[in-house]
Amino acid sequence: MVSASLWRDRDFTLFWVVQTLSVAGDSFSYVAIPLLVLRGTGSVSQMGLLTGLAGVSTILTGVFAGALADRIDRRLLLIVCDVSRAVLYALIPIVWIVSPQIWLLYVVVPLGAAFAMIFRVTYVATLPNLVDPERITEANARLSATYAAAAVGGPVLAGILSGLYGPTAAIAVDAVTFAVSAVGLCFVRLRVRTPVGDPRRPEEMSWRDLVVGVRFLWRHPVLRALTMLLWFLTFLTLGLTDIIVYYVGHELRRPDTTVGYVLATAAVGTIIAAFVVAPARRSWGFGACWIGSYALCGLAIAGIGMTRSVPVVAALATTVVFGIGVAGICSMSLRQEVTPDHLLGRVTSSFWTIHSALGPVGATVLTASAATYGVPTTTLLSGVACLLVAVVGTLTPIRQARPERLAVEVP
Question: Do residues 34 and 233 lie in contact, with contact meaning Cβ atoms separated by under 8 Å?
Answer without folding.
Answer: no
